[in-house]
Amino acid sequence: MRGRAMAIFMAATTFGPVLGPMISGFVSTVTWRWTFWTGLILAGATWIPLLFLPETYGPIILKHRAEEMRKSSGKSNAFAPIELETKGFSQLMTVTLTRPIRMFINEALVFFTCIYLSFAYAIFYLFFEAYPIIFQDMYNMKAGIAGLAFLPIGIGALVACAIFFIWDSFLYKAKKANTPWASIEENRRLPLACIGGPLYVVSLFWLGWAANPTTHWIVPMLAGVPFGIGFLLVFIALLNYLTDAYEVFAASAMAAASCCRSIFGAALPFAAHPMYDRLGIHWATSLVAFLSLAMCIIPFAFIKYGDQIRDNSLFCRYLKETREREGKEQESQQLGQEK
């Protein structure tokens, strides 16, 4: 269920960048202020439901249950594990806030996932500069019409979401049948990234070499469909893999990934105009395609070496030892009840 929820979440977040250029292109003709008014209206409308979202973080749910037990039964020794942890400003600064940084530096899974997702994310935001160069400058489209060129990316995201649901159903049946491959961590999530990565590369070459004044505008525009499929499959697969691998530490791993891709997404678009001016549309887009080709090796490497990487991970080893200890405690409790 978590995988499906993440797929829907990622598909929904893809539509923000997809619809933004189109909306901005049309409303900014009235006044540039309406671009920001539209964003404010949407942010305000979507903020209200957040007030009613339930808590989903396991340790906090256990804390609330412990508090209820202490109130209802008067048991003062009912505590959740999170309540027994050392707290304070020093703990917050030296452990909690630094954990994403430590995981980025010391955890190979987190580091390479951050690099791949950050680059993919940055290319998406690079399109905010590249698409106007292609569709406004080359094909003489107005800003609002050129913004429609992003819609195929949204279509691709929907297709990717459907592909994930099909894969998830197949995986569920395999796990239910106790198929050996379905019990391997890397086999459950990463095959989708192995499909998405090459699609992502193909879409970039397609866009770069189909963009030509003598070629109909729909041809480069349709490159957005495989781009959307590849982009979302890579994100869904790798983020789910991080979550499965790091469990209770997944929030820190996701924080590292979010921070890195935000930095890349903000920085790379600055290189768009100089790069496209010097290399031209064909080779500038091909350059990021070749770099993406190198990046798409990462999920294949994880499938081959992921179990060894996790065995050498401090966080993964800690989680494994905790599971084994809890399993032994449950066995001893069951034996005690039987006696």
Would you mind describing this structure in some detail?
The protein is mainly α. The protein contains 15 helices and no strands. The mean pLDDT is 86.
Q: What structural keywords apply?
A:
single chain, globular, mainly alpha, 339 residues, 81% helix
Helix and strand arrangement:
Layout lengths: L1 H26 L5 H18 L7 H16 L15 H8 L2 H8 L1 H31 L4 H5 L3 H26 L8 H26 L7 H4 L2 H23 L3 H18 L4 H24 L1 H15 L2 H25 L1
Radius of gyration: 24 Å
Average pLDDT confidence is 86
Strand content: under 5%
Number of strands: 0
Kindly report how far apart the N and C termini lie: 38 Å
Largest sheet: none
Low-pLDDT stretches are none
SSE pattern: HHHHHHHHHHHHHHH
Structural class: mainly alpha
Total helices: the number is 15
Query: Helical amount among residues, as a percent range?
Result: over 70%
Name the overall outline: globular
A few lines on this structure:
The chain starts with a helix and ends with a helix.
